[in-house]
Structure formats: C-alpha cells, structure tokens
C-alpha cells in the first residue's frame, strides 16, 4: 500500500475516533480509566506520571461543553480501581 494511502487511512481512523469521543464522552472516559488501571497494574506503578498525564488529556478532550470543570481526576489507579465496576465508582459524576 503506498505511503499516502496509509496516511489517508490513518487520518480517517483518527477523525472517526474523535467523532466517537465527542459523541460518547462518558464511555470514552470509562474505557480510558479501565485501560489506565490495566496498564498501571501491569507496570507496577512505574509509569504512573505518564498515565496520569494521558488521563488528564483524555478528560480535557472529552469534557462536556457547558460544564465549568472537566471530569474529576481519579484518586488512584491500580488493582483497587480495576476491581470496581463503573456503576460503583464514586470518583465519577
């Protein structure tokens, strides 16, 4: 596949992901929390700063228009948050 065709396909995939994130911010944040907990558990907390930074960016990009503050930052990552179901989480509105 020629390079330009790959770049165009990647651009289309990114555009589709952004559209989905704008339409479903709660789902995106929930899945990002689960992914962060998984990665943090697998790495033993070595990359917690990087994970927190990525989560701040996800929340910043998916904040709902009209809200004065973006989604709150979670208290922790790791096994404690991974075992709780999203409906039982207390750190989310």
Verbal overview:
This protein has helices at 3-23, 25-43, 48-61, 79-82. It is mainly alpha-helical and 93 residues long. The longest helix has 21 residues, at 3-23. The protein is extended and about 45 Å long.
Keywords:
mainly alpha, 4 helices, 0% strand, extended
Write the layout of secondary structure elements.
Layout: H1 3-23, H2 25-43, H3 48-61, H4 79-82
Helix pairs in contact: 2-3
What is this entry, summarized?
The chain has about 90 residues and is mostly helical.
Question: What is the mean pLDDT?
Answer: 78
Low-pLDDT ranges: none
Number of helices: 4
Element order, helices and strands? HHHH
Gyration radius, rounded: 15 Å
**Structural class by helix and strand composition:** mainly alpha
Helix proportion range: 55-70%
Shape: extended
Give the termini separation: 45 Å
In total, the number of strands is 0
Note the beta-strand portion: under 5%
């Amino acid at each position: 596949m020629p390079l330009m065709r790959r770049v165009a396909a990647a651009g289309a995939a990114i555009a589709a992901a952004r559209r989905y994130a704008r339409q479903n911010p709660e789902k995106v944040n929930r899945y990002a929390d689960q992914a962060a907990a998984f990665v943090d558990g697998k790495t033993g907390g070595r990359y917690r700063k990087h994970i927190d930074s990525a989560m701040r960016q996800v929340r910043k990009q998916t904040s709902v228009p009209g809200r004065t503050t973006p989604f709150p930052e979670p208290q922790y990552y790791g096994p404690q948050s991974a075992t709780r179901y999203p409906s039982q989480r207390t750190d989310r509105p």
